[in-house]
Amino acid sequence: MVNKLVLLFGIILFITAQNLCAAERLQVGDVVAIELTSKSKPALETLSAEGNSIVSTWEISKEGASYVSVHFRHFLLADEERIVVKNGAGEEQYALTGQGKEGSRGTFWAQHVKGDTMFLELWVPYGADMTSSRFVIYEEAFGFPLGTERELLEDDEPQWGHFRKLACGANDRLHAKCFETSHPEYYENSKAVARLLIQGSWMCTGWLASSDDHLITNKHCITSGDDALNTDYEFDAEAPDCGYSQGQFQTPGVVFAGGEMLKYDTELDYAIVKVNGNPSAQYPYFEFDPTAQISDGQEFSQAIQDTPIYIPQHSLGYDKELGLVSTHPDDIALGDAVCHVLAFDWAACTAFGGYLEVGYYCDTEPGSSGSPVVSSLTHQVISLNHCGCNNCNCHNIGVPINEIYAEICEDSCTCGIWGCCAD
Prior knowledge:
Protein name: Serine protease
Number of domains: 2
Oligomer: single chain
Number of helices: 8
CATH class of the largest domain: Mainly Beta
InterPro entries: Peptidase_S1_PA, Peptidase_S1_PA_chymotrypsin
Pfam families: Trypsin_2
Helix content: 10-25%
Radius of gyration: 23 Å
CATH topology of the largest domain: Thrombin, subunit H
Strand content: 25-35%
Largest sheet: 8 strands, antiparallel
CATH architecture of the largest domain: Beta Barrel
Keywords: Signal, Virulence
Signal peptide: 1-22
């Protein structure tokens, strides 16, 4: 018992100042200035099959891009008008009406489409005035080409060298699909996790935390209400089979576009967003582990020490993976080749001191920020993954869920969501 206490309270997690810096979200694409309006000459103009609409089509493309999105400065359509957005293969499409995205007032990043081509089709009733301004696009975003994202990241020292989430030794992460049969509960629970595309060119991971569309991620990922509005929350972004190759934003999922920021904290590095479109009607959510109710940091640390864990995540913007298996000697020494909570230390990623962060060797990488760290015993969340370091001498790091839970329960705006308001 003495040895365990020394392990817990003797600062096991050894992180020097040069090993770690402030957490950052991952860049996954480039944003380019453009001036495209409803008055710009379309690539194609036709009469609809029914003969009652003029259909004007514009093409936006960049060879090899993994996805395409556009930023509307102005968007206002009359009744019976719409813009249909399609990808080049015709496999994805959705329609925009009125002011476009819910809550946007006509200025927003449009939901991205996969591949290197986006088509915009403006449908206007035959005989309508075609000279009025219906939309203005002033930026376009192109995802890094499939297969190049890692090389681009390794060339970016601030993103890779200082922010790297460690996958030391063997990379033990596997496609979520690999666990569908062997660990069905793990697989089903992971459906609560979403891939986030923020402001057209940044990404992180997030997870549903209630039955009413509340999603939790890192504050360094979604930094503002404008970020929350201009994020694509993509669920079911999974490879079709266990042996499928990996690529950034490769497999389409189900996208819910936009949301509202409800609460955040910079030092605890969490953000709570109410996602548009009711994803909770289709997907499960993670609950907080009972240990979240332990207010004392040392007691919380003792309660979760050596707990087996797993981390559903979208590292590097890839299709969903599970960090569950671990071949690290410290994990194997506990009896199973799976991830465990191994260490604690004073906060150093987004705060300095104040609370004990959770350490583990479960493999993560840039883009895994905002993932839930889930107890394999209860299948409930015990930490929020948010940081790592640039060598293999320290752990990956999560914010303890009891600290986040305490803040949520002290706030009258959020305590009712999780039923923890003070009497």
